[in-house]
Amino acid sequence: YRVYDDFMSDGHHAYMTLGGGLRKAIDEEQFELYYQPKIRLSDELTVGAEALIRWNHPELGMIPPDHFIPIAEESGLILPLGEWVIRRACRQLKEWRELGYAQFSVSVNLSSRQFMQPNLVEMVRSVLEETGVDPKYLELELTESMLMADANQTIEKLYAFREMGLSLSIDDFGTGYSSLAYLKKFPIQTLKIDRSFVQDLGVDADDDAIVKATIAMANSLNLKVIAEGVESLQQKDALVGYECEEVQGYLYSRPMSSHDFSSYLTEQSYNAPRLVANI
Ligand code: C2E
Ligand code: MG
Ligand code: MG
Description:
It contains twelve helices and ten strands. It is α/β, with parallel strands linked by helices.
């Protein structure tokens, strides 16, 4: 990425420069969703994708989400931006379906402020209706801190999403409270093991122990488990040994533009054994 100059690492300056451009960027749709495949380890099929936002800034080039999502959160612009992400992902799903690709689910990341938005459930429902996407193909990625914030409202929202047919996953699992109580209490289907634990698999015995225990726990609670940030065969082999179901990472693919993801899907369906699974 061509990101930014040293002077911008000063938080305030970054806020002024990026923050000032965000509103305009939303109006002008300077954003783009990239897609990273999720691979099922048992057969190495692509079974889903995660949508990851990018900002094509007219002067600064491609800006990664870590640099502007916090600013969007702070300014409240995350609400229109988050809605754009969900709509864009659903339109993309519809487009892939119309092009005849095997259907798979796409997950989108929610931020805390967006999750607290009172009309979130209605917004998601209306985007699904508008785009005609079957809710079972949309997954929401939440973080541990969101789930801890306001337990009652949280439970209501999560159940409302489940009733609509969406699936829910906990992103970056292991980096927050990692409360076992909420795994029981909340209707979650998937845990995503944070890449900081995956990184040192086979190198740091503690990380192996944490990953192994998390997978075993998820499996016995009937939760799907996916490891993110898988970059090496060694990491993948360790995960296979621990009975991890799915992985995501540079070993298989970096996040791609929708155009490249479409080519990837075409290629996958011609090159056995990594066919796209029709799920
Ligand atoms: P995340 O949801 O945990 O997404 C995974 C991040 O890890 C992505 O970074 C992805 O490109 C990166 N990644 C995937 N595989 C590998 C790997 O093998 N090695 C390494 N080193 N990295 C890998 P990205 O796209 O820069 O996104 C960073 C974070 O920004 C995301 O973390 C998510 O929290 C947030 N984000 C991205 N898109 C959105 C969005 O549409 N809305 C919101 N609210 N947040 C978003
Ligand atoms: Mg995520
Ligand atoms: Mg993550």
